[in-house]
């Protein structure tokens, strides 16, 4: 499919700005192609489809901070609210040296789809700062987080837009964001972010929620294709809160995790890696590099590993035209956001490899974020068993609905998820109408 496809512009609408067009390569272009694929399935709601191609609000901010050596450094920050028709914006904040506007816009749009797919009352948003946080001291990291929060404070709030952790951010970052927003508004506002420490209104089970959701939909999908989880071989890219938790849950079911790749390299063991030992190693050393009970293979060889399930749980655009033809898995579960390009999707579909798309597979995190937000408003907190039970039910129900649409309309699970989610978003847009 051509990258230039961005669909016809309705009469009276201005053409999309260049930074919104699909031929502006990057994650946003991938998202626009995904939208184009779903438009023929939207029926009368297709008249509102242009809504999906234009973020509601894009905020670019300068983030100046005092460095430890006395200099002043400037970082570029973003907060994008893609759609808020169904409720306040919801989405993470990432600190990474390769953050771009295209990436953050795409991530915010995928959040709109994800939240609608699991039917939680949120719109989609995302934020980020272009920075390598590993090069900052703890003090510099705190000052940057607080300044960024102050800069985007004009558009966030517990009923407006609720940030959460993402790549290179965690519960401590959320604590600083919550405190900064609270100081600026004059009252403690625990609901302005999710993914906080439990002592500050965070939810039990939140850290493991995304990985648990990946595992849950993987088990459900395996039933449909006759894959026995207990005898399956799994390869995982990224071994943090998502890939590490999912790998642990699959291993506890009897599966063999045979290969793991992260920023430190790629390791392999045909008999299966000792996942608890590997998680301890990563916690102590920051990556899988140096894990003694495995052989090292090249990063490129990761895509040739003989496995039944592949879990990309790192960054976007990892599975492309260049490597999609080499993947040997029967099923791919997208733990990361946007790890597969549209062209790669087509290759995988032609090869009869089932792809569980990010917009349903990794929605466990935002689902428990929703639970956290609800608990903060009520000041009544559930135990972890209750949270996990509610999470599993929502994920199973959402997956069942998507699977039914995919079978009924003979489309991929990604397109089916977009059909379910975009109809919900656009139906709400239609009901609300345009003001003024």
Identify the notable features of this structure and list them briefly:
single chain, 436 residues, alpha/beta, Rossmann fold, seven-stranded mixed sheet, five-stranded mixed sheet, disordered N terminus
Number of strands: 12
Mean pLDDT: 93
Order of helices and strands, N to C?
Answer: HEEEHEHEHHEHEEHEEEHEHHHH
Shape: globular
Secondary structure class reads alpha/beta
Estimated share of beta-strand residues: 15-25%
Low-confidence stretches: 1-6
Distance between the termini: 38 Å
Can you count the helices? 12
CATH topology of the largest domain: Rossmann fold
What is the CATH domain class of the largest domain? Answer: Alpha Beta
CATH superfamily of the largest domain: NAD(P)-binding Rossmann-like Domain
- CATH architecture identity of the largest domain: 3-Layer(aba) Sandwich
Oligomer: single chain
Spatial order of the strands in the main sheet?
Answer: 9-8-7-6-10-11-12
Q: Please give the share of residues in helix.
A: 25-40%
- How would a textbook summarize the main sheet? 7 strands, mixed
- The total tally of domains equals 3
The Rg value, from CA coordinates, equals 21 Å
């Amino acid at each position: 499919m051509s990258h230039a496809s961005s669909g016809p512009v309705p009469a009276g609408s201005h053409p999309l700005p260049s930074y919104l067009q699909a031929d502006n390569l990057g994650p946003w272009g991938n998202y626009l192609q995904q939208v184009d694929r779903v438009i023929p399935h939207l029926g009368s709601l297709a008249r509102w489809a242009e809504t999906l191609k234009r973020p509601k609000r894009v905020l670019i901010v300068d983030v100046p901070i005092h460095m430890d050596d006395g200099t002043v450094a400037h970082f570029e920050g973003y907060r994008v609210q893609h759609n808020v028709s169904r409720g306040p914006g919801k989405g993470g904040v990432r600190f990474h040296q390769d953050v771009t506007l295209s990436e953050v816009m795409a991530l915010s749009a995928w959040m709109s789809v994800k939240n609608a797919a699991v039917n939680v009352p949120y719109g989609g948003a995302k934020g980020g700062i272009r920075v390598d946080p590993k090069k900052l001291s703890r003090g510099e990291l705190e000052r940057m987080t607080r300044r960024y929060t102050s800069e985007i404070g004009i558009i966030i709030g517990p009923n407006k837009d609720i940030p959460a952790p993402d790549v290179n951010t965690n519960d401590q970052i959320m604590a600083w964001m919550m405190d900064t927003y609270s100081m600026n508004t004059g009252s403690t506002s625990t609901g302005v972010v999710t993914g906080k420490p439990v002592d500050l209104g965070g939810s039990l089970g939140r850290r493991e929620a995304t990985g648990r959701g990946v595992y849950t939909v993987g088990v459900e999908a395996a039933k449909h294709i006759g894959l026995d989880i207990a005898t399956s071989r799994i390869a995982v890219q990224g071994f943090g809160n998502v890939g590490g938790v999912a790998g642990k849950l699959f291993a506890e079911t009897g599966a063999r995790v045979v290969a793991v790749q992260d920023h430190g390299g790629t390791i392999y063991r045909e008999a299966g890696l000792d996942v608890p030992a590997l998680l301890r190693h990563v916690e102590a050393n920051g990556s899988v590099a140096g894990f003694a009970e495995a052989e090292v293979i090249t990063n490129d060889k990761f895509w040739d590993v003989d496995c039944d399930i592949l879990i990309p749980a790192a960054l976007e655009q990892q599975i492309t035209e260049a490597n999609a033809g080499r993947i040997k898995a029967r099923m791919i579960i997208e733990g990361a956001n946007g790890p597969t390009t549209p062209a790669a999707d087509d290759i995988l579909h032609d090869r009869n490899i089932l792809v569980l798309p990010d917009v349903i597979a990794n929605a466990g995190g935002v689902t428990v974020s929703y639970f956290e937000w609800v608990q903060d408003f009520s000041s009544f907190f559930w135990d972890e068993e209750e949270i996990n039970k509610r999470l599993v039910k929502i994920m199973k129900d959402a997956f069942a609905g998507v699977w039914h649409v995919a079978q009924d309309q003979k489309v991929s699970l990604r397109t089916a998820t977009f059909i379910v989610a975009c109809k919900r978003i656009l139906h709400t847009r239609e009901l609300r109408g345009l003001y003024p």
